[in-house]
């Protein structure tokens, strides 16, 4: 028998179930006598030994389902070597449970944190295969992660809806989108939704530049403006501060978020009524888009192919539109951020979107 363990770790996103289904179906199809072991709640289930042999039927009817049927958790990488209740560190527990489950390999579906741990386990000698999931799209070595495009679709819909009400009232709407370090979601949905200003963590912003863009539109007769800002956007005069310090400084000023503070400044300076919209976890909820269903399926099938070939220590990826794989050791610890010379930044600038710098 081939025993394949599978877990989903980190923040959930649409497409996880489609990817799980892809791995399972292709594995059953490609290899004789496969057994899939579902591990609950990411690495925490592997640490605790919370797992079960799954029935083939469980992979049916989940293609369009949001979230993850396995459950997920954030298990901080820095805690991995810490001693747990049972007096062993978490890595040793995971190694022991891998043995106990009799696994031939472990499939880990997740983002940057997940891949760091996957690489650690691979370096410890386990057979690990990764799949790139995150709405942030910030995993190194792949053009795109699954979950990203669904989040872009949702965020674009939010911006579209905010647009009509902003136009009706002649207001500024500041839409805060997810992304602490990476601005992919904000810049893609900002461009797709026709935002007037897009502020991302990779390009520190000047408050005056943003306000000036809003004012200029008002002078041209456009009474409303849409500002799309990533939750992790940083002001130019605060780039030297740690994130925690920025948060503390902001809350001392009476603001709980980057969007609330910017909205206040816009309204106070321009006199234009300004509202804040924070779609939050709606961006990660619900059914995957058609694009993500296909991408997740392709990634799942590719992962099963690597298992079949016994090519462990890799994570699947898409490069220039083709499926491929990267070494876990090459991906772990890196982040793929929006670069100033990227096509999307160039496109945004060339159509006159203000990037706040
Ligand atoms: O990594 C995905 C993400 O949605 C980020 O965009 C966001 O900053 C974070 O997760 C939110 O974390 P939590 O899952 O703890 O709400």
Q: State mean pLDDT (0 to 100 scale).
A: 97
Present as ligands are: 6-O-phosphono-beta-D-fructofuranose
Give the overall shape. Answer: elongated
Strand order of the largest sheet: 3-2-1-4-5-10-11
Architecture overview:
By secondary structure, the protein is of the alpha/beta class. The protein is built from twelve helices and eleven strands. The protein has a seven-stranded mixed β-sheet with strand order 3-2-1-4-5-10-11, with helices on both faces. Strands 7-8-6-9 form a four-stranded parallel β-sheet, with helices on both faces. The model has no long low-confidence stretch (mean pLDDT 97).
Describe, in short, the structure shown.
The chain is of the alpha/beta class and 357 residues long. It has twelve helices and eleven strands.
Any key phrases for this structure?
357 residues, alpha/beta, four-stranded parallel beta sheet, 16% strand, elongated, binds 6-O-phosphono-beta-D-fructofuranose, metal-binding, 6-phosphofructokinase activity
């Amino acid at each position: 028998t081939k025993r394949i363990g599978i877990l989903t770790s980190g923040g959930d996103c649409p497409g996880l179930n489609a990817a799980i289904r892809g791995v399972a179906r292709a594995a059953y199809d490609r290899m004789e006598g496969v057994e899939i072991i579902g591990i609950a709640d990411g690495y925490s289930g592997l640490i605790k030994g919370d797992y079960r042999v799954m029935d083939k039927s469980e992979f049916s009817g989940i293609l369009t389902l949001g979230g993850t049927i396995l459950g997920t958790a954030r298990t901080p990488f820095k805690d991995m070597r810490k001693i747990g209740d049972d007096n062993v560190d978490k890595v040793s527990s995971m190694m022991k449970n891998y043995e106990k489950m009799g696994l031939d390999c472990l499939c880990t579906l997740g983002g940057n944190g997940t891949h760091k741990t996957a690489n650690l386990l691979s370096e410890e000698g386990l057979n690990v295969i990764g799949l790139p999931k995150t709405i942030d799209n910030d995993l190194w070595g792949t053009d795109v992660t699954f979950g990203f495009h669904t989040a872009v679709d949702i965020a674009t819909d939010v911006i579209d809806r905010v647009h009509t009400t902003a136009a009706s009232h002649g207001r500024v709407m500041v839409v805060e989108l997810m992304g602490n370090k990476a601005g992919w979601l904000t810049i893609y949905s900002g461009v797709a939704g026709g935002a007037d200003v897009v502020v991302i963590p990779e390009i520190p912003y000047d408050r005056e530049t943003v306000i000036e863009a809003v004012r200029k539109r008002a002078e041209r007769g456009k009474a409303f403006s849409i500002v799309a800002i990533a939750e992790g956007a940083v002001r130019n005069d605060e780039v030297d501060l740690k994130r925690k310090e920025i948060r503390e400084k902001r809350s001392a000023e009476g603001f709980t978020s980057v969007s609330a503070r910017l909205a206040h400044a816009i309204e106070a300076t321009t006199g234009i009524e300004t509202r804040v919209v924070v779609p939050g976890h709606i961006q990660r909820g619900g059914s995957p888009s058609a694009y993500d269903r296909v991408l997740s399926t392709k990634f799942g099938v590719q992962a099963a192919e690597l298992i079949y070939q016994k090519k462990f220590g890799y994570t699947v990826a898409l490069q220039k539109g083709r499926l491929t794989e990267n070494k876990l050791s090459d991906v772990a610890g890196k982040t793929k951020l929006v670069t100033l010379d990227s096509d999307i930044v160039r496109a945004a600038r060339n159509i006159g979107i203000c990037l706040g710098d």
